[in-house]
Amino acid sequence: MSVIFLNKEKGISSYQALREAQKALNFKKAGHAGTLDPIATGLLPIFFDRSTKFIQYFHRR
Prior knowledge:
Elements: E1 3-8, H1 14-25, E2 30-32, E3 42-48, H2 55-58
Antiparallel strand pairs: 1-3, 2-3
């Protein structure tokens, strides 16, 4: 399973952070579990390739 927790910096969107990580790590498919406002900082869970199908379970309690 390919998952990282990216420390998103202030000033970029969750989508921008996702695409930068995807490009840097050379994955074809990527998705994030949650959205942070561009002015917010924090950990952004990013799932790659086949792991993206598990995003739906990440939100369950």
